[in-house]
Write the structure tokens for this entry.
Amino acid sequence: MLINPNSLWVGSINGIHAVFDPQIQVDQSRWVLLYIINQENVVAYRRISARADAKKHTSTHPQFEIYKQKYSDWLTAKSVEEIEALKHDLRRKDAAALADIARIEVMHRKHLSIDDHSYRGISEPTNAFNIRDSICFNCHSKVGSHLNLKCNACGWMICEKCGTCGCRYHIAKQSDIY
């Protein structure tokens, strides 16, 4: 695979030096492949988190050219089949996420129907600044750590275990159900 050195992004994510190559990415994936300098390998990283956490190095960074060369050496040593296997893994992760979203949406609709709330859809966060963690008032599971789906009616995160959002919170609290 020919490398276009001008298309490479070199920087750090949470203090870890990395290289992003648009040529080895999967279009529309929730994941990006990042070459991690100190691991001398590529890892899958959530795209939304990468955008929020990334800090680009300028060409004046003392290791800028060295990092690009390390990535180039790594990529040159890989076969087309190995790169395709990495992309296949991203597609597998995307398929699993879509299946999780469908499962959570079914549970969410079920919870809304209990009190005749109308379903207004669910949304994924558009940037990592919308990602937060909490605890579900219904089943007390950790909420928000994986998909961070949001109910379009109330704006609350949807629990990935039971499908509850904030639409039922006030009703549940008043009737002391939970």
